[in-house]
Write a structure and sequence with these properties.
This protein is α/β, with parallel strands linked by helices. It has helices at 15-21, 27-30, 32-41, 54-62, 79-89, 105-117, 132-135, 141-147, 158-165, 179-182, 185-191, 227-230, 244-262, 271-286, 305-322, 329-340, 346-359, 366-375, and strands spanning 64-66, 69-71, 94-98, 123-125, 137-139, 154-156, 168-172, 193-196, 201-204, 210-215, 233-237.
Length: 376
C-alpha cells in the first residue's frame, strides 16, 4: 500500500520577517536604537511621564551623538523652533504646528510624540467628515443595547486614551475638521477633562498629557479656528527651508530612506539631479530665478519640499523598473510636470514659459528640457 503523501508544511513568518514586511514603521520603532541610547545617557530632569528630558528630545529631533550612537537629524532647520515646540509641550499649553503643506508638520509631530511618550499612534486624522465621536468617544452599540450606558460600553478615542495614560495625542489637519467639531477640544484643553454626559462622569487628564495639532491655510475646504480654540494653543510656524542646501539635504535624506523602505533596486539618486528638482521648485515658488535676474510667474500649487521628495522617489521607481537603475532627466520629467501643472490651463502656461525662458537657456539642463518638451 502506497504511503500517503506528506502534506507540505509552511513555516510561519518570524517576527523579523513581519517587521521587514511593514511598509512604514512608526517613529518609535524605526528609531528605537536612538531613543534607547538617549534614554540611557539622559540624566536631565524629565517632566512627568516623559520618556526623555526636553534636551534629549531636542537632540533626537536635531541630531547629534550620544556615546557611540549617532542620532540622525529628523528636522533640518532652526533649532530654536524645536526648542519652543518642546517647551510648550512641557507646559499645560497645547502645540499647533502651522505652515504651508509640505513643511514637515506631520513628520515633526510624529517624532515629538515618539520621543516624549514613546507612542506616536494616538492619532486623530482630521477630514471634512471627522465627527465629534472621533475626538471624544464612541459606543459599542451591542453592549449599549444589552446592558445600557456604562464605561465598559464606551469606545475610547485616541484623545481619551492619551488623557488616561498621560501621553501625547495628535490631531492632523485640524483646520480640515468642521468648526463645531473643532470646538470639542476647548474643554479638554482648558479644563483637562473630557465629560461623559451620558454617565454624569468625566475622564481627567493624567500628568504628561498634551496635544499636538497640525494645520495649514492653503488647502481648499479649510475651516478657520475659533478665537477661543486658538487661545488654547501655542503656535509654531514651520517655514520652508531657508537655503538651497537645507532643502537638498532634506530631500536627499528622505528619498534615501524611502528607497530602502520600498526596496527599490536602483542607485542612490545623484545629488545633481536632486539639486535640479529643488532649484525648479524654489524658483517657481519664489517667482524669481536663483540669480535674481528673471522674474517668473508662480503656479497655483505649493511646490513644497514634500512634493520634491515625491518627484525624486517616483523617478527612482521609473529608473529601477523601466530604466537602467540610474536616475535620469527622463525619469524626473513626468513627476516635475505633474507637480507643477495642477491647473491644466493656468499652470500649463506658467510651466511652458519657465521651460522656454529658464530651463532651455541654463547650461547643463538640455536633457531635462528635452524630456519635458517630449511629454507635451
Amino acid at each position: 500500500m502506497a504511503s500517503p503523501k506528506s502534506k507540505s508544511t509552511k513555516t510561519k513568518p518570524s517576527q523579523d520577517d513581519t517587521v521587514k514586511a511593514i511598509l512604514r514603521q512608526h517613529a518609535e520603532e524605526q528609531f528605537a536604537t536612538e531613543l534607547t541610547a538617549l534614554a540611557e545617557a539622559d540624566d536631565r530632569q524629565r517632566p512627568p511621564n516623559w520618556q526623555l528630558s526636553p534636551w534629549a528630545v531636542a537632540t533626537y529631533l536635531m541630531g547629534g551623538k550620544v556615546g557611540k550612537t549617532e542620532i540622525s537629524a529628523k528636522y533640518v532647520g532652526q533649532r530654536r523652533l524645536m526648542e519652543v515646540a518642546i517647551a510648550t509641550l512641557a507646559t499645560d499649553r497645547a502645540l499647533l504646528l502651522y505652515g504651508i503643506p509640505g513643511t514637515g508638520k506631520s513628520w515633526v509631530s510624529e517624532h515629538l510624540a515618539a520621543a516624549i511618550s514613546g507612542n506616536s499612534t494616538l492619532l486623530i486624522q482630521g477630514t471634512a467628515g471627522t465627527s465629534e465621536e472621533a475626538i471624544r468617544y464612541g459606543w459599542n452599540y451591542a453592549q449599549l443595547l444589552s446592558k445600557g450606558p456604562s464605561m465598559d460600553a464606551i469606545v475610547a478615542s485616541p484623545l481619551m486614551n492619551a488623557m488616561s495614560a498621560g501621553k501625547i495625542a495628535r490631531v492632523e489637519e485640524l483646520t480640515r475638521i468642521p468648526a463645531d467639531v473643532q470646538d470639542t477640544l476647548i474643554t479638554v484643553l482648558s479644563e483637562k477633562t473630557l465629560p461623559i454626559a451620558e454617565l454624569g462622569e468625566e475622564v481627567q487628564a493624567t500628568k504628561g498629557f498634551n496635544l499636538i495639532a497640525t494645520a495649514n491655510n492653503r488647502d481648499k475646504g479649510v475651516n478657520e479656528l475659533s478665537s477661543a480654540l486658538k487661545r488654547r494653543f501655542n503656535t509654531v510656524i514651520l517655514p520652508t527651508p531657508n537655503t538651497m542646501d537645507e532643502e537638498v539635504q532634506i530631500v536627499q535624506k528622505r528619498v534615501t530612506s524611502l528607497g530602502r523602505a520600498l526596496e527599490l533596486p536602483t542607485e542612490a539618486p545623484a545629488l545633481t539631479e536632486i539639486r535640479r528638482i529643488v532649484t525648479i521648485f524654489r524658483e517657481l515658488r519664489s517667482g524669481v530665478t536663483e540669480n535674481g535676474k528673471t522674474k517668473l510667474k508662480s503656479p497655483s500649487g505649493t511646490l513644497s519640499t514634500a512634493e520634491a521628495i515625491s518627484v525624486v522617489s517616483s523617478g527612482m521607481a521609473l529608473a529601477a523598473h523601466f530604466g537602467d537603475g540610474s536616475l535620469s532627466a527622463e525619469d524626473l520629467a513626468a513627476g516635475v510636470q505633474g507637480a507643477v501643472v495642477k491647473d491644466p490651463v493656468q499652470d500649463a502656461v506658467v510651466w511652458k514659459e519657465y521651460l522656454e525662458t529658464v530651463v532651455k537657456e541654463r547650461e547643463g539642463w538640455k536633457d531635462i528640457y528635452r524630456a519635458c518638451r517630449e511629454l507635451g
